[in-house]
Amino acid sequence: SSELTQDPAVSVALGQTVRITCQGDSLRNYYASWYQQKSGQAPVLVIYGKDNRPSGIPDRFSGSSSGDTASLTITGAQAEDEADYYCDSRDTSANSVVFGGGTKVTVL
Amino acid sequence: QLQLQESGPGLVKPSETLSLTCTASGGSISRSSYSWGWIRQPPGKGLEWIGSINYSGSTFYNPSLKSRVTVSVDTSKNQFSLKLSSVTAADTAVYYCARHDTSGYLNWYFDLWGRGTLVTVSS
User: Fold this and answer.
1) In which region does residue A102 sit, left (phi positive, over 0), alpha (psi from -120 to 50) or beta (all else)?
2) Taking the CA of residue A92 as centre, how many other CA atoms within 13 Å lie in the half-sphere pointing to its CB?
3) Do A86 and B47 touch (CB under 8 A)?
4) In A, which residues are within 8 Å of B108 by CB distance?
5) Do B107 and A98 touch (CB under 8 A)?
6) Angstroms from A21 CA to nearest CA on chain B
7) Which of A9, A93, B32, B110 has the most CB atoms around it within 10 Å of its CB?
8) Which residue of B has its CA nearest to A98?
9) Cα–Cα distance, A100 to A89 (Å, whole number)
10) Which pLDDT value is given to residue B32?
11) Of the ranges B14-18, B25-29, B78-82, which one carries the lowest mean pLDDT score?
């Protein structure tokens, strides 16, 4: 099975823009999805497909993809965006799912 | 609005079978476009997909866990279940159930999660 690689941690100043990346071979064939997990809570889907946000997710969250890398961008980060962010995708072995290791976002 | 809730023993002995149930409320799990899945998270670590089951009962599992995992669904009870056999301390984790949208070929995603339940493997 393939792997998805994420940077362990990133920080962003309040109101600034941060990009979180997810790299893996499966992303050449499938879109990534992105999840936000705040401390002690279950993950929440924030981006899926090409660049789709579920109802209730602020439009400061956006997604993009190029080659083997998918990105989640938070434009104008807020204090409440401080969380762990995970990507996932279908695996290259088709009927399987792989998660990235997660990126901890700190809002300064 | 559909909600999911995990239930089951919080403590399992090594070598035994972990059994969890996810009960849906506020809606039916019989809708054909969705699958239903299990994901776990060891303390302080990342997410790991365990397996999912679709509307027709077809299952797909994480290759690294496949030999020990069974996911099943009982639509009459609006529930789906996880069994993980021969557990060790490495299986200690928070276990989440989730709705798994597998309707699109290019993108699968978990759009609704339960709150999770901690299962500890210890004698």
Assistant:
1) left
2) 10
3) yes
4) 30, 33, 89-90, 97
5) no
6) 16
7) B110
8) B49
9) 9
10) 62
11) B25-29
**Cβ of A76 under 8 Å from any chain B Cβ?**
no
| φ, ψ at A22 (rounded to 5°) | -145, 120
Digit-coded pLDDT (tens) for A48-64: 999 999 999 999 999 99
Look at A88 and B63 and tell me if their CB atoms are within 8 Å: no
pLDDT at B33: 77
Segments of chain A assigned E as strands: 5-6, 9-12, 18-23, 33-37, 44-47, 61-66, 69-74, 83-90, 97-99, 103-107
Q: Does A85 touch chain B (CB under 8 A)?
A: no
pLDDT tens figures, B37-56? 999 999 999 999 999 999 88
How far apart are the C-alpha atoms of B101 and A48, rounded to whole Å?
10
Measured between CB atoms, which of A48, A88, A95 is closest to B60? A95
Using a 10 angstrom Cβ sphere, with 0-12 exposed, 13-18 middle and 19 or more buried, the burial of residue A57 is middle
The answer to whether the CB atoms of A97 and B108 lie below 8 A apart is yes
User: Residue A72: beta bridge partners?
Assistant: A20, A63
